[in-house]
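Hey L., structure's done. Input below.
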Amino acid sequence: MRRREFITLLGGAAVIWPLAARAQQPAMPVIGYLSARSPDDTAHLVAAFHRGLGEQGFVEGQNVTIEYRWALGQYDRLPAMVTELVRRPVTVLTATGGEPAALAAKAATSTIPIVFTVGGDPVKQGLVASYNRPGGNATGVSLLTSPLEPKRLGLLRELVPQATTIGVLLNPNLPQSGSQLSDVQEAARTINLQIRVLRASTDREIESAFETIATQRIRALAVTADPFFDTRREKLVALAARNAVPTMYHFREYVLAGGLVSYGIDASDGYRLVGVYTGRVLKGVKPEELPIMQATKFQLVINLKTAKALGIKISDNLLSLADEVVE
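Output:
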């Protein structure tokens, strides 16, 4: 072989080898991020999820890809969305925004790992076998939003002691709405309180519920924990202000938006934990090896400006219990 031909051949190989090496590199893993909520009302939660991923060494666009799907509070859209992600396919499904997304993911696949957030008991919902040994292909974090409904009702009664009847806004389409209702009814009987259950799963039904509050002169309202309501946070706060009805919520974000009071977990910390678990699954840990985590940071948040507008005097006891006071 002539020297010039050898150099030419060698140069061609130099081009081919890097291309072959790049072709052999594994593709980045893909997270299918399924949410029952919307990107607008969960921006801070998605940021917390990214922090958790980062703790495990994963950064979107660098060593992991994320495909997002948002149901915008319309739970019937979830099955088609998760089916699309499964067909892609994704490496892991992160199902957020409560039971609707988690149950849709569980129904769609028994092989792709699932990391979820739920508001209630994942064992009762059939998502896992037990807290310590989830079994199957799913694990996640319980944000304990639903079990706190009785506590929120009691706090609202203390906040508005003159209210003999309190409205309870409930979404019948939420899987755990039945247990929410029974828990609230039992709590109301315990403190000798009448409740008026108002059901809403659409924007018009929310408006109708507040019309009922006005016509029946219901003195206070408890909004039950529900992803659909979370996507309508601004609407609910505005209607509560327009009708001058003291309202209890489950997340701090409602109070920051002008709501009166909230009691519940720090959702951002819960989503960070979901990010941590998702990262561990990407590293090869099986969901069955990851016990269900429960949120431990609880927050009572009160908006004094809203209380003043409603003519409500916050007791010294509630102020002393508050973790955050918005002025």
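The mean pLDDT is 92. The chain has 13 helices and 13 strands.

-- N.
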